[in-house]
Amino acid sequence: MDNCIFCKIARGEINSWKVYEDEHTFAFLDISPATEYHTLVIPKAHYVNVLDIPAEVFAKVMQTVKKVVNLYQEKLGLENLQIIHNAGQEGQQDVFHLHIHIVPRYKNDGQSVTLTRQPNWQDKFSDMMKKLN
Ligand code: 5GP
Ligand code: ZN
Fold it and tell me: What is the pLDDT of residues 58-90, one digit of tens each?
């Protein structure tokens, strides 16, 4: 995609702090990190998000996520992290080239990813399950 910032990063047309690269994937530091070493993993080919990427390409992206996490475990002693994928406008996606966030978490890092839970919705579950049949 000509006008996609992450396609340009994957092609090396825009500078980035590269952490890892292979034939199909690219990992680099998020320009506006939530915590130290906040990293994005992308496929080099343009897909919007998990909804349009073929499963086999998504698997390659997740293999790279695992490599980067292992690298940080080995080099940084990383023990706590969150893996986040935002998909679609209501899913808080801002850049529409698939990316997986690796967000290392540290004691007292001042961050939180909080969803408000609705435990009383359990009485809707049987109706919800009918739509999956
Ligand atoms: P989203 O909200 O789509 O899940 O996340 C997009 C992420 O891309 C944000 O965390 C943002 O900081 C990051 N980002 C946006 N533009 C650039 C860029 O040009 N370079 C890098 N390294 N990260 C970017
Ligand atoms: Zn792209």
Answer: 999 999 999 999 999 999 999 999 999 999 999
Distance from the alpha carbon of residue 116 to the mean position of ligand 1, in angstroms: 25
Query: Is any ligand 1 atom within 6 A of the Cβ of residue 7?
Result: no
Q: What percent of the chain has pLDDT over 90?
A: 98
Ligand located closest to 101 CA: 1
Ligand 1 within 6 A of 35 CB? Answer: no
Stated pTM of the model:
0.97
For 39, list phi and psi in degrees, rounded to 5.
-130, 145
Query: Is residue 121 classed exposed, middle or buried when 0-12, 13-18 and 19+ CB atoms within 10 A define those classes?
Result: exposed
